[in-house]
Design brief:
About 35% of the residues lie in helices and about 20% in strands. The chain is an alpha/beta fold and about 130 residues long. It has a single domain, classed as Rossmann fold (3-Layer(aba) Sandwich).
């Protein structure tokens, strides 16, 4: 299964990390696609590599918050944040997201979740305390 990932630049909490590991295993993930930003993307990259998953990086055109994660199986052409986030969803079967808090209008993480829902993708939202919805 191809899993898309989105999360906050603040990074994952320990509870989120534990749940992301559990969900990647539960879903039978073979690939993880992420946006190559500092914070949660870099955390997810490390988790996926430790689990032996194939990692596909979708970098942003703006390098300001880019993580430059190493060891990916493939790197897509850089795109602006919104187009990159949509490409992650368009190439995957399901989304695992680690937002910082409740839904916000001006949040890349939440915009990606909304797009995934619009496209009919299953979305696993892992909140800071580890609860999943």
């Amino acid at each position: 299964m191809k899993v898309g990932f989105t999360g906050t630049i603040s990074g994952m909490s320990e509870a989120q990390r534990a749940q992301v590991i559990a969900w990647l295993k539960e879903l039978g993930a073979a690939q993880l696609h992420h946006g190559d930003c500092t914070g949660a993307d870099a955390d997810a990259h490390a988790i996926a590599r430790s689990l032996g998953l194939e990692v596909i990086v979708h970098p942003p055109t703006n390098d300001k918050a880019r993580a430059f994660c190493k060891g990916a199986a493939a790197e897509r052409e850089p795109k602006d944040y919104l187009r990159r986030n949509k490409a992650i969803i368009d190439e995957t079967d399901v989304l695992v997201a680690t937002p910082y808090g409740p839904e916000q209008r001006r949040s890349g993480t939440w915009a990606t979740i909304r797009y995934a829902r619009k496209r009919g993708r299953a979305c696993y939202l892992v909140m800071r305390d580890g609860t999943v919805s």
